[in-house]
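Hey,
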Amino acid sequence: MTLPFFYEPLLASSNGHFQLSEETSKHCIQVLRMKTGEQLQLTNGKGALFKARILSEDKKKAVALIEEELLSPRHLKKISIAVSLLKNPARFEWFLEKATEIGVSEIIPLLCERTEHTRFRIDRMKQILVSAMLQSQQVWLPTLREPAPFKEVLVSTAYGLRLVAHCEDDARNSITELPPFSDAQILIGPEGDFTPHEIKTAMNHHYLPVTLGETRLRTETAGVVAATLLVNK
């Protein structure tokens, strides 16, 4: 049986006792009714998986004994998805969940000319990432940036391979035909696509135009397709 799995961002060492956060304590003791001596797994979202055992049954500050630490190297490819915010926040949240499950490294909410800006609740969005990481049994939590203007992302990126996915009829490359790479960032536009000016600006900043297939995809679907293709390239 799979051990209960929790996120503890402050857990940095496998030595000694660790006081669980109030949220984890409540879930372990009050919800799961775990008892002293029962085992659980913890991750700090930075590549470490800790096997631990409950020492005290306090629903606000339970204590666990760290018994083992396993380190998992980050995926060989560092993938950044810069994707436009959506008018319907539930669709953007769905993208965050799936991108985390797939294994992207970074997510940047984009503010484009055609973005219908909505309120961005970063605490809620980060919790969605944590839940998706735990559900998919991963130990690396993607970095979620604050929403950023399109041009700001272009001038601040440090990725070696830079891609912009769009639906214009101009010549575009297929992701499946790209040469090997170690890191990449792809830009995904809003409903209605990037404007011609944005596409030209991205190309002037060394972004390679790419296609995600023959059909026209919703923004969140395009993000998931791009993530899948790049992580598994």
